[in-house]
Amino acid sequence: MPSAPLALSTCSDQTVCVIGAGYVGLTTAVGLAEDGRQVRLLEIDEARLQLLREGRAPIHEPGLDEVLTRVLRAGHLEVVQDITEGMAGAGIAITAVGTPPTVDGEADLRQVERALAQATEAAGEGAVVVIKSTVPPGTTARLAAGRRRGHGTPPLVMCPEFLREGTALEDLRRPARLVVGGDDRQACARVAELFSRGGTPTHITDSTSAELVKYGSNSFLALKISFINELAQLCEATGADIESVADGIGADPRIGRGFLNAGLGYGGSCFPKDVRALENVAAYHGPSFWMLQAAIDVNAQQRRRFVGKVASALGGAVEDSRIAVLGLAFKPGTDDMRQAASIDIIRYLADLGAVVTATDPVAIERATPLLPGIAMLADPYACVTGADAVVIVTEWAEFRGLDWDRVGRLASRRLVVDGRNCLDGRELARLGYTYVSVGRRSQTPD
Ligand code: NAD
Fold first, then answer.
1. Which of 246, 339, 341, 367 could form a disulfide with 328 if both were Cys (CB 3.0 to 4.6 A apart)?
2. How buried is 237 (Cβ within 10 angstroms: 0-12 exposed, 13-18 middle, 19+ buried)?
3. Residue 270 known to be catalytic
4. How far apart are the CA of 116 and the centre of ligand 1, in A?
5. Which of 80, 97, 116, 366 to mutate to test the pocket of ligand 1 (most atoms within 8 A of CB)?
């Protein structure tokens, strides 16, 4: 006998369906399950599903494997493939699917539209559907207006995600703020209650404003990074030290020290695509957002300039030089390679005729298909063996902790070009290195 349609079942906010098991969806699902909710995690990618079913996280995030195992064993998290199963009895559905950039730099909303249609269709009476994916201003309102289901259509709430890869679980346990947007205030309050962790500052607003908070936040941080990188160029021209300058500027509480680290610029799955998407939205509405274009240009230039820095440190050209690149992931603590600076830098170096080897504590598997022909070595000491220059691209603590005297003995030359200003140049100079960094004076052997 056919069972009663699940869509009509009563539902409770104790049960949550998370759609998409990527960096956001998986960590959100695990975080909510850890908090005692009953979570169903829906994923369509077969390889990711398989790993999750074996209790293994398909992404690298500190602490994630342990919590995943715990919540799966406790039965608080179930991995599902079917939306009806996922939504049965669920009071809240969270779409955490990707919004990758199109070739024109707009946000591709097809995954969101599909997930939303599925959740709307399968939602029980009284359920709320939440968009966690980053979507351009006006999207939630447009999608809410365009849904077809009729009476009982679940309210749509926009709740942008601010977690940072590398500290995602901590960010979920202790969010700095919550932003919830939508027309239905009761639905917004339920979503705020789901994510709040006792006293989290919460801003309830309309969905378009919530969407702009997310784009505005990422774009502002990108502007800070590009600003400090331009200032670093002035430091190099004038002999000032960017670390001291950033410390002095950042000591002003109106500015803050965060995101004022000169280096190789921003990368990752969010900043590059969100800055471009916001610039696109601004251009569509008439006046362009000139500052964003400048931030994008500075960021691209920063990677090219760095390759020039490596070349001049090697005497003018990289051709036939052996260069060991330490760091592939776009930042420490993750294996995410999306828009990683390492991709551009390694490609530029290889195009200029350098022989490149590379290493990373966790990202080699993801990096290998993106950088064909580049020798990837898990052991950093093997990576630097015979190198004419050691180049730091990701500031992993593991690299700071290397035995740099041993590195010097293995390399053919004691030369470090530090794209993240993460090593102690004086100490390296004491060990006989020439040390070149960003916005600071180079150090030569004592
Ligand atoms: P991701 O690409 O890592 O993960 C998305 C997942 O959704 C994939 O595993 C995909 O297979 C799955 N998926 C797509 N359609 C589906 C469907 N219909 N049913 C089930 N699963 C489906 O993306 P991400 O990095 O987790 O980002 C998700 C969203 O969150 C993006 O909009 C992003 O901009 C935003 N965001 C990301 C971060 C971050 O640090 N990664 C931080 C804040 C916000």
1. 367
2. exposed
3. yes
4. 13
5. 97
